[in-house]
Amino acid sequence: METGAGGYRVTLDAEGRVACRNAAGRTLKSLPPKLNGDPAVTQLKQLAEWLGAHERRCLADVERWMVRSLPVPAAVLTEVWADEAWQAVLRDVVVTGVDGEVAGFLRGADAERGLGLVDLDGDTVRLTAAEVLIPHPVLLPDLDELREFAVELGVSQRVRQLYREVWHKPAGPLPGTAVDEFAGGRYRELRELRGRCDRLGCRVRGGSAVQPVSEGGRTVEARVWVGDYYDYDACETGTLSWAGPDGRALPLTEVGPVAWSEGMRMAAALYAGRTIEGEEAA
Question: InterPro entries this protein is in (predicted)?
């Protein structure tokens, strides 16, 4: 795109930044100050902001499908595949049938031929089912095998599916309604703990970090007490519990595998940022 002054040409580079070449065709290291208000530069910056927001929405949508293990119409995948942002997020996610049987790594989507996948034998196959799942990794029984095969294929997932931290619910009866494994993580100031919640994408409500999870047709909420004191007061992480749609604490025996994994993941991450004596807070 040519600007209105000096023969400069501007464009967006591969990283979404405005790049500039002068009249001689030489790429400049930085944008000349006199171009900051140029209409062409302004348009490119606005486009870059829109593309960045679009990419974040695509990633958030696919992560929501995964965490909720929602059936996804194959027609939706074929429709969005032409969009580079969607394709970058969807490429190499592990796809299964609605029965949970692993089909392979997603490599293409075509309205006539179906979804193109690389299966665990390294073969390219086609999946023509009307709906598929992008399952939460805790639901993949052969997760370790998939991780090893992904390394062999050189797979790099934009969505943290295979390499998302997972916590398997212990077998057998579990008494009570709370887990205290990650309680007692002390922070010098509450604002540090709340800041960590923000960085991890956890909402804080009523003194607790919360993570809603939809599973089995209902939404449950994992909760970790973080405190409702003054921002500069010392605090520590509390126990982890799960609440049903009515807000009441669920018995641990009623917590599903995805809700368990996501709750433990949140609690472990908050505990990991605790203040250790002699070290800076994480």
Answer: DUF4132 (IPR025406)
**Which tokens sit at 74?**
């194959």
- Asked if residues 182 and 271 have their Cβ atoms less than 8 Å apart, the reply is yes
CA distance 185 to 235: 8
Buried b (16+ CB within 10 A) or exposed e, 171-198: eeeeeebebeebbebebebbebbbebbe
pLDDT digits (tens, 9 = 90+) for 178-206: 999 999 999 999 999 999 999 998 999 99
Question: What pTM, to 2 d.p., does this model score?
Answer: 0.80
Per-residue pLDDT of 40-93, as tens digits, reads 888 888 888 888 899 999 999 999 899 887 889 999 999 999 999 999 999 999
User: Ramachandran region of residue 206, left (φ > 0), alpha (ψ -120 to 50) or beta?
Assistant: left
Closest CA to 106 of 139, 67, 146: 146
Cα Rg, the chain, nearest whole Å? 23
